[in-house]
Amino acid sequence: MYGQNPNTQITTPPDSLLKPPFVLIDSISYRFMGDGNFSRGNIIRDLIILRTELIFAGPAVAITTNPRFTYGKQNNILAERDTYVDLFIDILKQRQVYIFGLATVENSNLRKIDLRQLAGAGIGIHFLRTGSHTLNLTSAVIHESTNFRERATIVTQRNSTRLKGKHSFLQDKIRLTHITFVQPALNDFSNLRWNTLISVELPLTRWVSVRTSFENSFESIVEASRKQNDTRLTFGLSVGNRR
């Protein structure tokens, strides 16, 4: 080019001075789980629970969803056809204290709920993070709306406190996971919901594990024909790259 010194050399800055590109998501973890419980004889019982765990993680943001579908019959009469979808967005989860937002949508034939939706935000705290054990606690304020089939729609604000842990024993031959939600209404503590899920897994390969799960849920406000408490014990398999 006119006016340019032919001896001039164009140099590029060293790699140490180059700014790395921004990355929102750099890893994906997933698991697919199928649990069931079947009985024949005086009581005919069929129960199938399909779960998925997906985590899209990056340096600053982690997006998690755990959709679930439950189908069950009691003596050939439909008892459960329930769908649940959630979304968690964690900000700076690598730190001991972080912030997050959540939203869920669900319906339940078991509890005669046509639609329940909630959304909120809060903080999380890591109490334990080692190669074999993790334990964290989150607390959020949520806005919730529940459309029952027969009783009036209930709109309320709740505190949602969650304790979640994962534990590995005997050089990862046994895995224990547990998650508990406690959700009292802020304007009426007698309006309470909780849910506990405890699972024990025995890895068969790097990708496949056999599992058994115990689940207990409680709601203080239910339809007149429904009980407040439900308990399930199921057995199944999990497949995925997430421990």
Write up what this structure looks like.
The chain has one domain (24-240): Beta Barrel (Lipocalin), CATH 2.40.128. Strand 6 (97-108) and strand 7 form a beta hairpin. It is built from no helices and 13 strands. The protein is mostly beta strands. The protein starts with 26 loop residues before the first strand and ends with a strand.
List keywords for this structure.
243 residues, Lipocalin, mainly beta, 68% strand, 13 strands, 13-stranded antiparallel sheet
SSE topology:
Layout: E1 27-39, E2 45-57, E3 61-65, E4 68-74, E5 77-91, E6 97-108, E7 113-129, E8 133-148, E9 154-169, E10 174-185, E11 188-203, E12 208-219, E13 229-240
Antiparallel strand pairs: 1-2, 1-13, 2-3, 2-4, 3-5, 4-5, 5-6, 6-7, 7-8, 8-9, 9-10, 10-11, 11-12, 12-13
What would you say about this model in short?
Helices cover 0% and strands 68% of the residues. The chain has 243 residues and is mostly beta strands. Strands 1, 2, 3, 4, 5, 6, 7, 8, 9, 10, 11, 12 and 13 form a 13-stranded antiparallel β-sheet that branches.
